[in-house]
Amino acid sequence: MEAKKISLFDLVYKYGTVAVIVIVMLVFSLTNPYFFTYDNIADILRSISIVTFVAIGVTFSLIVGGFDLSVGSTVSLTTVVTASMMVWYEQGAVVTLVVPIVVSLLVGLINALLVVKIRIPDLLATLAMLYIVNGIHMTYSKGYSIYANMPMSDGTTAPGKFQQWYLWLGQGEILSIPVPVILTFLLVVITHIYLTYTRQGRMLYMTGGNLEAARLSGIPVDRYRTLAYVLSGLFAGLGGMLLAARIGTGQVSSGGSMLMDAVAAAFVGFSVFGAGKPNVFGTFVGAILIGVLLNGMTMLNLPYYAYDIIKGVVLALALAVTYYQLRRKRRA
Amino acid sequence: MTHLQMNGIIKHFSGVPALRSVDFEVKGGEVHALLGANGAGKSTLMKILTGAYQADAGTISLDGSEAAIHSPQDAKALGIQCVYQEVDTALIPYLSVAENILLDQLVQTKAKGLINWQRLYSQAEEILQSLGFSIPVKKHVEACTLSEKQLILIARATVQKAKLVIFDEPTAPLSSKESERLFQIIARLKQNGVGIIYISHRLPEIFQICDRITIMRDGRNVTTKKTSETNLDEVITHMLGKSFAEEFPKVQVPIGEPLLEVTGAAGGKVSGADLTVREGEIVGVVGLVGAGKTELARLLFGADGMEGGKVTLKGRQVHFRSPKDAVEAGIVLVPEERRKEGIFVEESVKNNLSVTTLAKWSPLGFIRRGMESGHARELVNKLDVKTADISQLVGFLSGGNQQKVAIGKWLGTECDVFMFDEPTKGVDIGAKSDIYRLIGNLVEQKKGVLYFSCEFQEVIGIADRILVMFEGKIVKELSREQATQELIMYYASGGE
Question: What is the ipTM of this complex?
Fold first, then answer.
């Protein structure tokens, strides 16, 4: 009797998230014939591509036992910076790509400085950075979204516009697969291989698993934690750049909602296939779950403001399963 | 008169038997030792008695009537108290000593309204005084030392009207003076008709204070004897299931050139420490709890900042800013706090064993899984780690096997000096002898060993030279031939 109960739970734990996605998709497909079409599935994947970038960044900070709350602000900042490079300063491809990347790396480095060197608890340090980076993005954009032909403060109109090649990153297709979806798959595969099959990936996990034991095993833990925050900043930055390409403007405060979606995706990912720890593949599945729910709810014409309730419930359920499992593991 | 009877207790974890029908009996007014190697099932049996686990089958009766114990509250209500080995799990760090001692009373009190702090403190004061402990009652528990925490737990257990008190490795963190006082307290409880279950790896004290001994092995109770009718050898034989000719065999190895030379090492509590370790030599560093042994080990390993002194490794002066520097130079540490510092409980045996040598198994940065697993399997066999598979999480292993993993991770490195900080703490005799054998192997390969311990007898058995620490200083060097427990105690407690 006992043994049977355990195996049922293990089943739920391992495949619960995936099962929920399948069930949700089934329900939506039955209620709306458009749901399960290629166009709509491509749409869902396109819509989650940016969140997936950000969520993978969050996953890196979780792996080393940290947390990065500043990713949403970093998305906002790099979105307007990228737009300004093209619209305000008429820069070519190199500058347009390099400047926002450098900016996001800097945000990651400062996070690392605060958490790793100055030893401020991660939540508090990155909370401070959330405000600082958000403030910088507002100050830099003067609170206005950046778009072609926008009026400048000196009365003229903005000289540049979004370049076609850049918009292609967010809106183009290759063999009728959206480019951002291809980029997302690439990122998921590369980071998954990095974390699972390389020495550095293992060391990141060991550092998060037991910081003191890792240090006493001769692992340069401060370096790995720094790396994780820098990568977190970088992926948030790439997310912001992709966002600019997708909407074709430098939308102000566009990253605000990204933080919570990314965190939810990463935590839902804990429970995917029973990993019990942060992992890229799970994070991707978590992002898909959120995307499917949002898409389905839109089709069902649920009020927009109710979405957060559903997202919150999903997150609470995933966390409940993860922590219930952890508790069982610790007790045994 | 209290009379506890546990019959046919069976317990499985995920299908693996931990207890296979155990019978156990304790009477009021006796001190009953529960012995067994790690993994024998002592802790599981006690957790069933205290309500932390539920037995799959079997009955527990107290004073002739069946005791339904479904939770720790049930056990406490029946008068079953436990002084846990892992003190931090039973104490609330940011509350005061007084609140922790009177915790059950505070929680269970029916009286509504305000806490009478004056009375709380004076009550706690009284309890501590009656036990002969001196700890400030307003001190926060997080600021207490390990031995103080242990004393707080003992005080808490005696507050309650206990019929039965379980002591799980109570003397591990205590100095010998504090241990003596604990034995007096146990004697007093015994006179009051309380039944005592006493779990310890220190066999001499078992023979000093216990009336009867029950020995467990592989989830069964093997035998129960009156202490007066048995002896050390017989007990060890029962625990191991085989005879144990010599408890601590010492490997004889020719001693070679100096490997590690330290002069005037200082930092934190430690000052002016001079020492030398040669090839094939085991140097014991002994002292009472709090003498600065762990601090010295961490200093030499680069884990804490060194404020002064000179360290030479194989003739080359070195300065470690982090453990990484120390490992690269060839000196490693097996730390005292195994679970916190030595192992990764939520990682597999394989990942634990390869954490120090992963660079070898990952040319070009990618891990070659075959090589990594081969290395892990080799170590598991060599160390005789009891694990189902190398993918098992280390957190599921017994203490002794966890320790073997904590040591094993260093064996694949090219290190010359191995430091062990209390490597046999909370480890059963079987694993202990494995650890001694391993240290013997190391010195046979001309490695140098620094062995930090507060178990004098152990150090006398294993070390070539013994350094005695007192208040952060090395106060005396003794040769193996000179050293006796009495002599070490004399210097360790500040004798000139």
Answer: 0.84
